[in-house]
Amino acid sequence: MRQMVSRYLDVGSLLAFILPLGIYLGCLAPTITFYDSGEFVTAVHFLGSAHSPGYPLFLLFAKLFAWLPVGTIAFKVNFATAVSAALACLMVYHLIRALLDVVIFCEDPVFSEFAKSLAAMSGALIFAVSPRLWLQSNHDKPYPLLAFISGLILFFLLRWGKNHLQGDEQPAWWYAAAFLAGLATGAHQTIVLLLPGCLLFVLVTSWQSIRRVREWILTVCMLLLGGAVQLYLPLRAAAETRQNWGDPDVISRFLWHLLRRGYPEDPHSRDVSLLFKQLAAFNLPHEFGWVGLLFVLIGLWACWQIQRAFLVYLAMSLFCFWLIIAGYFNPQFESIFLTEEFYTPLYLLAAVVLAIGLFTAAARGAAAAQKPDHYGVLHHVVLAFFFLLIPLVQLSLNLSAQDQHKNYLAQDYALNTLRPLPEDALLFTWGDSGAFPLWYLQGVERFREDLDLAHIPHLVFPWYQRELPRLAQPFKEEPGTVTAELFFIHLVEKLRQQRPVLMDFSTRYSFDWNNQQPVQQGMLYWLSDSGLVHYDDAAIWKMYVLHRLTPKGWLPDIDSRKALIIHAYCLLQSAEELARRGHVKEASRLLLLAGKIMPEWQENLRLMRRRYAIPAAAGGADER
């Protein structure tokens, strides 16, 4: 036992975990981000259910970190993701060591071990600073956890294969791998795409294994036992927890949730360009550079010499991912980016192969060079530079794009949306990134609990209607076949005279308002009758958090960019309305803020100033 602990907890192992974790913590988002972040954190907080397929393992894993005594719940969940990403890097290290176990770098055993450790460390760091994993590590995502478990499954298979070749049959490695595969379905269901490769790994290593009926039955039982993590979904739904997506407490809703039936997509044709784009979602040059791709090719050749079962596993896994994601799901151009995250386990494998390619090239170079009598410090430094050059280059290239430690935009967007709302208001939202940050702020931070936040695409679902108990009566009056858009229109008609009813920017520009133009209030728009509308453009904007909107030290993603545009465009609209009423000083102040958020709009701002005779210096500052 002591020997095993010392082998797997050596200095290299510790560095393979600590260095990536240190990088991730330095770039960690301090709070929620856009896309699924607010929803995930809210589901973790309430131990509810996230969007299909529910992600029970990820929620339970993150909940462990939610009990830490420091930071907000959002930061703790982000920290949990960073830890899972660092664990995935650690698995890269051990997979490389396992594959190079029987390979000799040179005749000097000490220097040969040093080279193997460097190769393993290089692979771990290359994976750590790859854009895809790094992007997922700085805020809440389930895919790093999935990558870690998939690497652990492969490691168990390699251990089984090594013992088998030594005449020591240990089917417990099968059982452990199967249990982890079932468990990993609670992180993401794409784990099943790796199972055919696992089966081929076993058969290539020992085709006679197909006769071991008893072991295969026990393996399937362990797979099902691990998959029992999915029971979390109906159990928590039966407890009527908040954030109960899909309400999967009966078998029909459970299967609807688990099988992602809530995301239907109309069939569409596919041409060669679309197919190429779908296959290119797995993009090795983007993750590791073209030099990295070259060493991946060298590594594939080396794996054929070292461990052919592993190479078969790689080929089958990539084939299954392409077959299901590109072939079966057939995503359209605008949704292909959603599939890019699914390939994270394959990028882990590619980092392993890349490091083996580096090791092979270095070993060939050492064999061709004049062999020294003794490998000194210079040899160690040169070899370390060779192995660490790619991760250092990738680190420098990707750091600016992945650093999120100053990214408060999603939280500030939610604050700016909720803070100015009148008491007891009903706010309609449209789009995940417009709704999820609000869910987090109200549900987790308990900010503005007097409000009802209605997400229009979900209005037709009974499970979502139960999340809005104060709207129970209007919901009962709607027929079951009404679309979400009609639901929204009918609710507005019923409630507009009773309470303040507003909508967000996305809702405003998702409908045709020819008959009635909604009244703008800051970033929101009134739908109530005029008697309930009380607003002051200048006063509203003074309530907003605007000083952190300009990205400094981080690069905005698509949804963050949209949030910036929403702020700037609404500032522009408010400024124009104020200028029409003669309040040029306040209009100038708002234009100044819009120019700081969107510096590329300066020409449009100058045109508006000229049109309404707004002085650039009004308000005591110049936009530059």
Secondary structure blueprint with pairings:
Blueprint: H1 2-8, H2 11-27, H3 37-46, H4 56-66, H5 73-99, H6 109-128, H7 131-137, H8 143-165, H9 172-184, H10 195-205, H11 213-227, H12 232-238, H13 251-258, H14 272-279, H15 284-306, H16 308-329, H17 344-368, H18 377-402, H19 409-418, E1 426-429, H20 432-443, E2 452-455, H21 462-465, H22 472-476, H23 484-495, E3 501-503, H24 505-508, E4 519-521, E5 524-526, H25 537-542, H26 558-580, H27 584-597, H28 602-612
Parallel strand pairs: 1-2, 1-3
Antiparallel strand pairs: 3-5, 4-5
Helix pairs in contact: 2-5, 2-6, 3-4, 3-20, 4-5, 5-6, 5-7, 5-8, 5-17, 6-17, 6-18, 8-9, 8-10, 8-17, 9-11, 10-16, 15-16, 15-17, 19-20, 26-27, 27-28
Structure description:
The model is unreliable at 618-624 (pLDDT under 50). The chain has helices spanning 2-8, 11-27, 37-46, 56-66, 73-99, 109-128, 131-137, 143-165, 172-184, 195-205, 213-227, 232-238, 251-258, 272-279, 284-306, 308-329, 344-368, 377-402, 409-418, 432-443, 462-465, 472-476, 484-495, 505-508, 537-542, 558-580, 584-597, 602-612; strands at 426-429, 452-455, 501-503, 519-521, 524-526. By secondary structure, it is mostly helical. The radius of gyration is 28 Å and the shape is globular. β4 and β5 form a beta hairpin. The longest helix has 27 residues, at 73-99. It folds into three domains: 2-397, no CATH class; 406-535, no CATH class; 547-624, no CATH class. The chain has a five-stranded mixed β-sheet with strand order 2-1-3-5-4, sandwiched between helices.
